[in-house]
Amino acid sequence: MTEEKRPAARGTVVSIVVNTTDPQSLSGFWADLLELAVESSYEGEFVWLSPVTPGGPKLAFQRVEHPSEGPRRLHLDLHSEDPEALLSRALELGASESARHSIGDFGWVVLQDPDGNEFCIAQG
Prior knowledge:
about 40% strand; VOC domain-containing protein; four-stranded mixed sheet; Glyoxalase_6; 2 domains; Glyas_Bleomycin-R_OHBP_Dase; VOC_core; 2 helices; 2,3-Dihydroxybiphenyl 1,2-Dioxygenase, domain 1
């Protein structure tokens, strides 16, 4: 009897979820920064933003009582042809800059969104 091969289990990223005490406010920051629309919302408990590219993952914001403290295990890297303009926009929307790094001629800025979640802006 030949052993039937089972298809490999494969996951697909459909959402990148951020835990927050205020999903409405934090999703508004990211919607404004990335020019995304609210795709759906569930009574202040969960907000989904439309994917950046068709078929891409959604950004989701989930209400929790106590978001994780300490180093973040997940963050977003944003690339831009004009990283300084995106940096200025993020700061205007309430982000704060925490560090600047470079390796050779590649540089990036580490920021925190209004809820303290890290993200980076780099050259495109």
